[in-house]
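Sequence, please.
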């Protein structure tokens, strides 16, 4: 399974009552495919406010995305949690509705050992035929998969990739020793170019809601050996990469992105508690940033 170089972690559109807005969800999928040139879409990841979605909503999102994308891009279901049995159940349901893969975050809060992390992912992978993308994001989970654990998991046939957010050093170690067919994505827009330089395959992006087509050009320029073009594009895009997450203070991904999409003429609604909308100062910052 090739999920492509650019994967977008999609926000979940809500209506005025904070129910899923299905019409707008369809428009957003079209926009990400047609205008932002994404190769795959993660549905119900953290950027999609997965902690506030019910399992029923998640499965319906998976089903809707598969049907609406209609093969134009791959659909990756966010089915990970810190309970193995729950993750197994949701991953099986995602497979039933036809998604192309599953993104599984490292178990958060309960802080399992490396052996516990390995057994967690192994149990889920063995319960499905879906291609699995691991997700290591220690800033959120308070636990980090080591290089050794990632490489051990990479030996399982249907674990095909990792979304790595620990460090460039760890990315380098993983890429250097990964088995053939196992690829690494960075999950940090701001290190897209450095990650490519150490062997990353691509990016699981949030900024691609706004500058996806330009990010696709950046990746292509680097891979084609046009390194100076890639550097120039990176310098041009970096203020957006940084600004979406620090506007003017660090904010959760969905908040800034949803406001930014509204500025682009695609309003996707608010956010569910405990998240709250952008402040007046943050909105002004984003207006100035995005013109």
């Amino acid at each position: 399974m090739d999920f492509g170089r650019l994967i977008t972690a999609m926000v979940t559109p809500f209506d005025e009552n904070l129910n899923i807005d299905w019409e707008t969800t369809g428009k957003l999928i079209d926009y990400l495919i047609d205008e932002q040139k994404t190769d795959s879409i993660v549905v119900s990841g953290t950027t999609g406010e997965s902690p506030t979605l019910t399992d029923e909503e998640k499965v319906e999102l998976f089903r809707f995305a598969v049907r609406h994308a209609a093969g134009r891009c791959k659909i990756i279901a966010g089915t990970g949690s810190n309970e193995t049995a729950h993750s197994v159940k949701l991953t099986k349901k995602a497979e039933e509705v036809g998604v192309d893969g599953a993104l599984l975050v490292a178990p958060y809060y309960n802080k399992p050992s490396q052996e516990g992390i390995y057994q967690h992912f192994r149990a889920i992978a063995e319960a499905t035929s879906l291609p699995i993308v691991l997700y290591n994001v220690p800033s959120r989970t308070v636990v980090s998969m080591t290089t050794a654990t990632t490489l051990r998991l990479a030996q399982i046939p249907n674990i095909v990739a990792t979304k790595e957010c620990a460090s460039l050093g760890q990315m380098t170690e993983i890429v250097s020793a990964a088995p053939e067919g196992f690829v690494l994505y960075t999950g940090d827009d701001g290190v897209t170019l450095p990650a490519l330089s150490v062997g990353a395959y691509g990016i699981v992006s949030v900024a691609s809601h706004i500058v996806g087509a330009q990010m696709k050009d950046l990746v292509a320029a680097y891979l084609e050996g046009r390194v100076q073009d890639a550097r120039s594009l990176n310098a041009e895009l970096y203020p957006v990469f940084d600004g979406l997450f620090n506007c003017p203070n660090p904010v959760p991904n969905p908040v800034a992105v949803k406001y930014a999409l509204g500025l682009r003429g695609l309003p996707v609604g608010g956010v569910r508690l405990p998240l709250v909308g952008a402040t007046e100062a943050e909105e002004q910052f984003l207006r100035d940033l995005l013109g």
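The first helix runs from residue 22 to 34.
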